[in-house]
Amino acid sequence: MPDTASNIIIDISGNTANMATDFASAGAGVTFAHVPIQKIAFGDDSITKRVTEANPLPVTLQSYQNLVGVTGILMGVSGHVQIKNPHDTYGKNFLKVAGTTSGGLIGVTGYIQGMTNGYPLGISGTVSINESSGLLVHGVSGTDGITGINAPVTITGGRRLNYLTDTIKIQDSVVGISGGRNLLASTDSISVLGYNQANQVAAQLFSNDGTTAGFSGDALKVAVTNTAFTATVNVSSTHGVTNDAAGNGLMVQGMSGGIGNPVIVRGEQGGSVPITTSSPISANINNLVSIDDTDILNSLENSGKPIVNNLSGIKQDSTNIPLIRNDLSSGKVRVTVSEIEQPNSLIAGTKSFNTTAQVVRGSGVLKDGVKVKASVDNTDVIFVGGFSLTNRPDQGMPLEPGESCYISINNISVLYARAASGNQSLHYLGS
């Protein structure tokens, strides 16, 4: 069980010693612990003195920030001492400073002034300022602009100038004249300069309702309304339409469906456009086209041929014709596909594209469409689409690196592509 009483007994080689302590129930680091009571000694390396009433402990009072209050007997102080008056309950105590023990005046050498941003220092009695005694009188701040030392004293109410004693210098300023002044051609001259200190004077033109006139470059905008006028215009005998850059073609595009779409030209009722020419037109026909007149003639020779027999059957019984027409119009015709002819050739390759849209391949007939794939080594998206991709970057389908898609077209020459940034590669495989 802990000993909570003051003073503790210590066993020393069979004997006991009573140690003077105080049992502390609270305190920083000494809660519920014995605090020893010790005697203090002071001195140097050779002499040690115990602290007694006759030999008090020497103490040095010092503070880093806060004031140190001292009461009691006189004590010597070295260095600076700040004296602060203690406060009572109502703060009415004051600190009295006198020049003598009897309360005489304090002699002052130097300048006497009030506190910064405080009340001015009041002086009772008669104050005489005599320039002959060497007393300088000047303002509290600034300089006089001549000696660089003393500022002039502000005079309230002003001072009249006298031509015998005063000189005025006017520099880089405007002198105000009350009541105006008449200018004379014989003595006065006026220079009017523009905003840039040049001879051009800027001016604004206003209508009677306050609207300002408009300008286009160095020309004044003029509109003629509510009147008829006649103009003579010289027009060249030759007219042309020129593109904005040399070497570029003149682009003709439609208005509907987005900017850059081509102009669609159709014939009457959406059909073909007839072409009339005075000379033969060269035409290229791909693949083989055969016309065998012998087969046609053999089918029409006699009643035993297929065409004649079929025509005869239709002549005798035409009831099936309306049924066939209805099935065709309603989509009920059944078709049995016995064989699909597969393409016998492939179109494949890889092409690099920059941010300008280009055709994937110049030519190539397709029967089963084409599949395109963005290279896995690409660093950005690549767009694929039609001709409109050349003028509208947003008219294409984006393909991430490694992404692919199938496109059902009959010729690869209608397929275009472009890169979102840098140079990106596109693989294609068609048949």
Report a brief summary of the structure:
By secondary structure, the chain is mainly beta. Helix content is 7%, strand content 15%. Among the domains are: 55 residues, no CATH class; 83 residues, Jelly Rolls, CATH 2.60.120.
Rg over C-alpha atoms, rounded to the nearest angstrom: 58 Å
Mean pLDDT value: 75
Strand content: 5-15%
User: What is the third-level CATH name, the topology of the domain at 348-430?
Assistant: Jelly Rolls
Key structural traits:
Jelly Rolls, 431 residues, 7% helix, four-stranded antiparallel sheet, 3 helices, mainly beta, single chain
Give an account of the 3D structure:
Among the domains are: 7-61, no CATH class; 348-430, Sandwich (Jelly Rolls). The chain has three helices and 16 strands. The protein has helices at residues 293-299, 306-316, 320-330; strands at residues 8-12, 15-19, 21-24, 33-36, 41-43, 48-50, 215-216, 219-220, 347-353, 358-359, 370-374, 382-385, 397-399, 404-407, 416-419, 424-430. The strands form six sheets. The chain has a four-stranded antiparallel β-sheet, with no helix packed on it. A four-stranded antiparallel β-sheet has the order 10-15-12-13, with no helix packed on it. The longest helix is centred in the C-terminal third of the chain and has 11 residues, at 306-316. It is flat, with a radius of gyration of 58 Å. The protein starts with 7 loop residues before the first strand and ends with a strand. The model has no long low-confidence stretch (mean pLDDT 75).
